[in-house]
Amino acid sequence: MSSDFFRVKRLPPYVFEQVNRLKAAARGEGADIIDLGMGNPDLPTPPHIVDKLVHTARREDTHGYSASRGINGLRKAQAAYYDRRFGVKVDPDRQVIVTIGSKEGFANIAQAITAPGDVVLCPNPSYPIHAFGFLMAGGVIRALPAEPGPDYFHALERAVMHSIPKPIAVVTCYPSNPTANIADLDFYRDLVSFARRHDLIVLSDLAYAEVYFDDNPPPSILEVPGAMEVAIEFTSLSKTFSMAGWRIGFAVGNERLIAALGRVKSYLDYGAFTPIQVAATAALNGPADCIEEMRSTYRKRRDALVESFGRAGWSIPAPTASMFAWAPVPERFRALGSLEFSKILIEKAEVAVAPGIGFGEHGDDYVRIALVENEQRIRQAGRNLRRFLETADETLHNVVPMAGAGR
User: Is 335 part of a structural domain of the chain?
Assistant: First the structure.
């Protein structure tokens, strides 16, 4: 049997797996690896949400197939959240659908709207599913800058002018995973205007809407007049309520796109387990103090990271949103590339990070650091790094001198 399956061939090797294997091997030898790699929240799910799950799961009538589009109460709760948080009114029956996490939603909207050879515009670097969902569906990716500035729109103009066939969609993600960039309403207004002029679909990833550290909550593209004509937005409860393993997300927006996503999902899944959906409804309708506690925890961890890594000799820009820092690889190691640098950190500093190359070739001068360890562990990582960086010229004399030769 041939191993050259069409869609599998379109996927590059999963670089994070190389780091994961090295991390597992080091732990197997007794190393205390401080894992700042995967964005897997370590905070507990708020008790009232867990209690609702347990209570509902004890009911005998909740263990059958659920609703692929999501139960009515959960879709109504998401519509109420958009009204409360963004001032956007949506129809829970026609403009909201529940997904098995935002990642599944992106993968299935790609299946729904993409024909072989269709061009989709995507930030580089970006979360992998933003590009590879479309590649698996037979599409072609054209890269845009990750930062929402003038260069973004210049690249957008060039892509529309020179792509054959004309692009069908553009992906956005703000607050960004991995770069932590944020966008304001002026950016979204310009993007909606551009999309309407050029008949583009906008696919907005707003999974980190509630993880922000200043007084300016990230906006939704759907706040812009006319956005409903062209846009669909994906959100998730994974980070907001530390429910990553529960796999609950949403798509909200353009009715035609929601219907297309629902059509695909109807063939692929029966929706998340009903008690999980009921508990997710309790999360959205419940008290918000747990969200502020989550923000406060991540803010303190961010500050501990920037301060302790800075003392170690590694200056890291402080993110204003998301649960990640996008850290430039120190100059002396940059020519090694982010993957080799990430491996060295595991071996020499017992710290795991995510190599930027895993988010696209334009991320190779960076690593992503997740705020998923407590402040004490983050400060310990800083001390480990300091010892490593102070002795790196001696301990890596067979590696670092080669860095100047390029990758």
Answer: yes
